[in-house]
Design a protein that fits this description.
By secondary structure, the protein is mainly alpha-helical. The chain has one domain. Strand 1 and strand 2 form a beta hairpin. Helix 1 packs antiparallel against helix 5.
Length: 101
Protein backbone atom coordinates (compact mmCIF):
# COMPACT_ATOMS: atom_id res chain seq x y z
CA UNK A 1 0.00 0.00 0.00
CA UNK A 2 1.35 3.40 -0.98
CA UNK A 3 1.20 6.27 1.44
CA UNK A 4 0.09 9.61 0.00
CA UNK A 5 0.60 12.93 1.76
CA UNK A 6 -1.88 15.82 1.88
CA UNK A 7 -0.61 17.16 -1.48
CA UNK A 8 -1.20 13.87 -3.27
CA UNK A 9 2.50 12.99 -3.46
CA UNK A 10 3.62 9.43 -2.80
CA UNK A 11 5.66 9.12 0.39
CA UNK A 12 8.62 6.71 0.24
CA UNK A 13 8.03 3.49 2.17
CA UNK A 14 9.76 3.29 5.53
CA UNK A 15 9.84 0.45 7.97
CA UNK A 16 7.65 1.18 10.96
CA UNK A 17 9.28 1.60 14.36
CA UNK A 18 5.86 1.48 16.01
CA UNK A 19 6.26 -1.70 18.08
CA UNK A 20 9.78 -0.89 19.28
CA UNK A 21 8.91 2.72 20.13
CA UNK A 22 5.65 1.74 21.82
CA UNK A 23 7.17 -0.92 24.05
CA UNK A 24 10.17 1.26 24.93
CA UNK A 25 7.83 4.17 25.71
CA UNK A 26 5.84 2.05 28.15
CA UNK A 27 8.83 0.40 29.82
CA UNK A 28 11.52 3.13 29.69
CA UNK A 29 9.51 6.19 28.69
CA UNK A 30 10.69 8.35 31.55
CA UNK A 31 14.23 8.17 30.15
CA UNK A 32 13.12 9.21 26.64
CA UNK A 33 14.50 6.09 24.95
CA UNK A 34 11.55 5.92 22.55
CA UNK A 35 12.27 9.48 21.42
CA UNK A 36 15.86 8.58 20.56
CA UNK A 37 14.64 5.51 18.59
CA UNK A 38 12.38 7.77 16.51
CA UNK A 39 15.16 10.30 15.95
CA UNK A 40 13.81 13.02 18.24
CA UNK A 41 17.04 13.80 20.06
CA UNK A 42 15.96 17.09 21.63
CA UNK A 43 12.74 15.63 23.00
CA UNK A 44 14.62 12.60 24.35
CA UNK A 45 17.07 14.87 26.13
CA UNK A 46 14.17 16.86 27.60
CA UNK A 47 12.56 13.71 29.07
CA UNK A 48 15.89 12.39 30.32
CA UNK A 49 16.79 15.75 31.85
CA UNK A 50 13.39 16.07 33.52
CA UNK A 51 13.81 12.61 35.03
CA UNK A 52 17.31 13.34 36.29
CA UNK A 53 16.26 16.69 37.75
CA UNK A 54 13.31 15.07 39.52
CA UNK A 55 15.60 12.40 41.01
CA UNK A 56 17.87 15.15 42.33
CA UNK A 57 14.86 17.00 43.73
CA UNK A 58 13.70 13.86 45.55
CA UNK A 59 15.88 15.08 48.39
CA UNK A 60 13.21 17.74 48.65
CA UNK A 61 9.66 16.42 48.76
CA UNK A 62 8.63 18.00 45.43
CA UNK A 63 10.85 15.61 43.45
CA UNK A 64 8.77 12.64 44.53
CA UNK A 65 5.83 14.07 42.60
CA UNK A 66 7.83 15.25 39.58
CA UNK A 67 9.38 11.84 38.96
CA UNK A 68 6.03 10.47 37.79
CA UNK A 69 5.46 13.09 35.06
CA UNK A 70 7.94 11.71 32.48
CA UNK A 71 6.82 8.15 33.24
CA UNK A 72 3.18 9.08 32.62
CA UNK A 73 4.15 10.81 29.38
CA UNK A 74 5.95 7.63 28.29
CA UNK A 75 3.00 5.37 29.04
CA UNK A 76 0.55 7.65 27.24
CA UNK A 77 2.79 7.91 24.17
CA UNK A 78 3.38 4.15 24.19
CA UNK A 79 -0.34 3.46 24.17
CA UNK A 80 -0.87 6.00 21.38
CA UNK A 81 1.93 4.45 19.30
CA UNK A 82 0.62 0.92 19.73
CA UNK A 83 -2.97 1.83 18.82
CA UNK A 84 -1.97 3.37 15.48
CA UNK A 85 -1.65 1.33 12.31
CA UNK A 86 1.80 1.03 10.76
CA UNK A 87 0.84 3.39 7.93
CA UNK A 88 -0.53 6.01 10.31
CA UNK A 89 2.49 5.74 12.57
CA UNK A 90 4.99 6.15 9.72
CA UNK A 91 3.07 9.09 8.31
CA UNK A 92 2.56 10.93 11.61
CA UNK A 93 5.75 10.22 13.57
CA UNK A 94 8.40 9.26 11.02
CA UNK A 95 7.48 11.32 7.95
CA UNK A 96 5.84 14.41 9.46
CA UNK A 97 7.96 14.30 12.65
CA UNK A 98 5.20 14.96 15.20
CA UNK A 99 7.28 14.89 18.37
CA UNK A 100 4.76 14.97 21.22
CA UNK A 101 1.56 12.95 21.58
Amino acid sequence: MQVVDENGNTVPQQSSKRIAAGILAILLGQFGIHKFVLGYTNEGIILLGLTLISYVLMCVVIGAFLVFIPAIIGVIEGIIYLTKSDEEFVYIYQTNKKAWF
